[in-house]
Amino acid sequence: MSSESLLWKGTPSQVLNLPALLLGVFVAAAITAAALLTTFVAGPLVIPVIAAAWVVCLFPWLCKSVSTRFNNYELTSERLKHARGVFSRSIDVLELYRVKDMKQELPLHFRIFGLSRILLETSDRSTPFVVLDGIRGGGELSDLIRRQVEIMRDKKRVREVDFEDDDDGGLD
Fold first, then answer.
1. Which of the 8 DSSP states describes residue 43?
2. pLDDT tens digits, one per residue of 87-108
3. Beta-carbon contacts of residue 72 (< 8 Å; ≥ 6 apart)
4. Per residue in 26-59, pLDDT tens?
5. Nearest-angstrom CA–CA distance, 41 and 101
6. What is the CATH number of the domain that holds 118?
7. Are 143 and 118 in contact (CB under 8 A)?
8. What is the residue-wise DSSP string for 6-31?
9. By residue range, what is the domain housing residue 135?
């Protein structure tokens, strides 16, 4: 009988979509300015052209925002689950004892918003690398994952062994 319990649940921050939003607003504003400067030519069609420009320019940001909203992570006492997809869902499940290495990245644009990126290298064939992007409280989550990995390794009696190649390619 498994006593698996939920330890953490989260989604990436919508800050990840900020570049798409800024680009869309910039392009739409440029089209709006150009349309308004040529109103004497466009006449009554200027308003629909401006509205269409804003819709078209912000559509990629809207798609990315919806996709990010349906991107979920769950850390249980035994597994890390990553569910994604809006219409068709895909769920990757990683057994925690398979985590080989972990790295936390704090790029400047993430640090400004209190976010981080956690990279996991695993021995799982279907998901050799797992990226938790745009996560709040990444330091605490990294520590929690590390503790749970060690607990699961002890429970499953699993150890990570690294083999390094000799320069001459032979066995001594």
1. G
2. 999 999 999 999 999 999 999 9
3. 9, 10, 11, 82, 83, 84
4. 999 998 888 877 765 556 777 888 889 899 999 9
5. 62
6. 2.30.29.30
7. no
8. EEEEE---GGGGHHHHHHHHHHHHHH
9. 6-12+77-156
Distance from C-alpha of 92 to C-alpha of 125, rounded to nearest angstrom: 12
The tokens for 52 are: 């269409």
The total number of structural domains in the chain stands at: 2
- Phi, psi torsion values for 102, nearest 5 degrees: -140, 140
Tokens 């790295």, located at residue: 103
CA–CA gap between residue 117 and residue 70 (Å, rounded)? 18
Terminal CA-to-CA distance of the chain, rounded, Å?
46
User: Does residue 165 sit within a domain?
Assistant: no
What's the alpha-carbon Rg for the chain, to the nearest Å? 23
> Got the DSSP string for 73-123?
EEEESSEEEEEE-SSS-EEEEEEGGGEEEEEEE--HHHHTTTEEEEEEEES
- Tally: H helices and E strands in the chain: 5, 7
